[in-house]
Amino acid sequence: MSGTWPAVNACLNASSAGLLMLGYTFIRAKRQGPHIVCMLLACGVSMAFLISYLCYHAQVGATRFPGQGWIRPVYFTVLVSHTVLAVVIVPLVIRTVHLAAQRRYIEHTRLARLTLPMWLYVSVTGVLVYWMLYGLFPAVAEACPMCKEALQSSDAGTVARVGKAYAASMAALLGVPVLLLGGITSLVVRSARRNRPSSPVRH
User: Fold this and answer.
1) Which of 32, 43, 111, 112 has the most CB atoms within 10 Å of its CB?
2) DSSP state of 132
3) Domain count, the chain
């Protein structure tokens, strides 16, 4: 489980980023209803990520980055900026949602111009940190028990089993956000068509 849990967290981050971009697209098109749905879903996905992230690190602890050379300062720059903004964004999101709930749309829009890019950055860099930590270097075996088992094993069955587990986790990482956004888009389009006023009859 410890080997696939980070992939789940990355999947949640990717889903959050997709929902934010979809929500932004809707509000630019002045489709307030679908925008609200996407942004509330983004809040829920981000909250699920936070809970999952805290539970994972409570069990596993810190994960050591194995990269050396120029990639090391790049990784820690991304990680630190991601972590700091992840803390800063929480009150901004709460305040932005609160202003929308109170129908204070002018203030909501002004704050959202700051909140959205920061929130999107946190979501995207969350996926980037996962890729740099678990997908970029084979030496990550020291941090991932599943990879360590495969690299140290001479049994072809074990290597194949771990390879299938890794492929499944990557399929979830890439497929779940696509399916989620596709389903949401389909529901929103159907709802918009049902609520669209009929054209007046010309005489």
Assistant:
1) 112
2) I
3) 1
